[in-house]
Design brief:
By secondary structure, the chain is an alpha/beta fold. It is built from nine helices and four strands; from the N terminus they run H-H-H-E-H-E-E-E-H-H-H-H-H. The N terminus is likely disordered.
Length: 229
Amino acid sequence: MRMSSFRYLIVLVLLFVFSGGLFAQVDSIPSAEWISRHKDSLRSELLNNKEVHGDFEHSILAALMYYPTLNDTRIAFKERKIATTMAARPKVSSIFKKAEDRKYIILINTRQNRLKAPLLSNVPFEARVGVIGHELAHIVDYKRKSFIRIIGNGIAYVVSNSFKRNLEHKIDRIAINKGLGEGLYQFRLFVEEEANTTDKYKRFKDNIYLSSADISNLVKSINNLAIDN
C-alpha cells in the first residue's frame, strides 16, 4: 500500500531532524507521481551541492530522501559509457582532501555495451531508485575512509573478486539498512528475469552482488527486528 502524501512529509521532516535511517520503517519507495508533486520542496532540501541529470531527477530525488547525511556532500551525476549500469567514485582532484571536502561522481551508463548491462533509462522507477541508492551507499562508505584506504581499496577491487564481492555485499547492506531494500530487490529481479542482458553479465551480478533472494531475506529480517523492538 502506498503511503499518503502527509505521512511521507512527516517522515521527511523526521529524517532531516534526526539524520538517521528512519526510512527503514517506510512501507515503500515514493512513486514518481508523489515526487513530481513535491519536487520543488524536495529540490530545495536535497539538491544542495548536487549536479543532477534532468532525465533521472525524480529517481535521484527519491533515493536522496534516504540519505540525509549526504545533504551537503558534493555529488555530480554524469553520463558516461561504462561497463555496468552505474558507478560511484571520488573525483580524482579531490581524493586527497578531507572526506567532508571531497566531491563525488556517480556515472550513468548511456550506451549499450557488449555485456548489455541494463541502461538506467530502461529500468523501472522503483528499481532505478534502488540502484541509485546503492551508488549513494558507496559514497557513504567512501566518506568513512582516508585517501590511502580509498586508493588501496580501489586496487584491491580491480585485482580481487573476493574483495569486490565483500565490498559490494557491504554496500548492498548499507542501502538495505537505509530502507532501500525493496528498490534493490526490484533491480536485481529485473536483471535476473527481465533485462535484455547477456548471461555473462548475469553471472557477474550473481557472483559479486547479493541476489534478489538474499535481499528479500535481509529485508524480512530487518522488518522482523523492527517489529520485535
